[in-house]
Protein: FAD-binding domain-containing protein
Organism: Talaromyces atroroseus
Amino acid sequence: MSLHQAIDLNRDLPGVSATQVNFHPPTGISCLVVGAGVGGLMTALECRRKGHSVRVVERSPAPSTAGDFFSIGRNIIAHFYNHWPDLAAECERINYPSLVAYHTITGERVSGPEALRIGEPSMTLNDGSQKIIPFHRHHRPKFVAALLAQVKHLGIDVAFGAKVTDYFEDSDRQKAGIVLHNGERIEADVVVAADGIGTKSNKLVNGGDTRAYSSGMSIFRTSFPVELALSDPEIRDRWPLLDGDVPCLEIWGGYSDIICWLMTHKSDGKGIESWNQTVDVSRVLQITSKIPGFPEVAERLIKTTPKNGIVDWDIMWRDPRENWVSPAGRVVQVGDSAHTFLPSSGSGATQALEDAISLATCLEIGGKSNVPIATKIHNKLRFERVSCVQLSGFMNHQKQSNPVYAADSEDGPSFKVSLGNWMVMYNSEKYTYVHYGEVLNHLLSGRPFKAQNIPPGYTYKPWTIKELMAKVERGEQLRFGGDWS
Ligand SMILES: Cc1cc2nc3c(=O)[nH]c(=O)nc-3n(C[C@H](O)[C@H](O)[C@H](O)COP(=O)(O)OP(=O)(O)OC[C@H]3O[C@@H](n4cnc5c(N)ncnc54)[C@H](O)[C@@H]3O)c2cc1C
């Protein structure tokens, strides 16, 4: 099986109908979405549901099957149950529910396997019913294919092979637009830059790119058909499925049809932020050979990875950037183009999906004549929350880089990844409906607005990576007040 086979739009997409979706009346707002990743496709779906007309352009010639796994917040699955029931069913079908066990770098089990408890097990849906939604861990290519299937089912135009080179806006004509690699210009009432980390929209939105600092760490990542690994009996014995055929996600300090392994290591400056450039397995083995006691069976597992299967992603820090909207308010960034996350945050995809819901709702409330203020309100509603999620990812990164297995700190076991209740028990659409007016008042008359989608009791303070690193170097605890659990 080829690792990076393109998805055939006519053959491989799952069947996802929209018979149970309630579409809002047309708003007359035209949206042009750049990027058919998680954030872009969800923006297209939510814009369509809210009555805006929408089209998508994507630079890849075809949907990409690159990438391995990410977590999707249970609040997003609850949103699918509320508004996209077929998509919810597809997500349950393709989910890889797993238990988690923590290990030392030499493979000794420290805790687990146990369910990853994040928030209450049961979510309240919009009709008042309670729904138990498990932790969702998705294979990115399959999750993107599910979103794309829903988009295609609605007849939303997705142009592949359309690389955007520039963004522009014209406040007099109340239009924004993009320039494609072939010089073609396309305009709309609002352009959504969902083109990821290397977005071309920063020049217009912020006058230039956000500075990225090397974290000094890089991460090898891969996923491939599990039969390749299980053909070795020692590997099969070491990593059996748990009772009920449940896979175990093992996190080593410091199942079913696809196996995924990730390894954070000191950066040698050769990794880059790309899902398409791969490294040879020998690079990984050079590192593991220097770890005293690193189990031979783990090296055997690494060796089963197919050629061109390992990405070496350089982990970069970026300070939170408060502004995601162009001066005239007609180009707005969502997902990674607005904010990037460390792998330890487990939240990059979820925050992109929450952005999409918030933006489409703001445009719906504002209406065609208020697009510029609606995008700014969306930005204000989202920024502090996203910045707190980024901060929580930094805290997880520190825990994982220097795991202390013996003592539990006040914040719980000091080696366990934590995602707060405040992150998961959250309804992005409802929050937008409730607080849109307050933010409008805040922007127009300066009336104070206090975000309520951040850790309870915490008063937001801007932060930078440099300040955090200095705290870590001074040996200070990363504590910020409020309840982050
Ligand atoms: C191929 C790929 C594989 C990934 N694999 C993983 C993974 O295994 N685990 C994980 O945690 N995260 C992965 N990510 C990142 C993860 O999807 C994002 O962090 C998160 O979901 C936020 O999504 P996004 O839509 O903002 O950005 P992305 O998912 O990065 O999507 C951006 C989209 O914009 C397109 N694009 C970029 N530039 C242009 C341009 N100039 N013109 C037109 N289109 C453009 C890209 O091709 C891409 O489809 C992957 C991203 C990509 C693109």
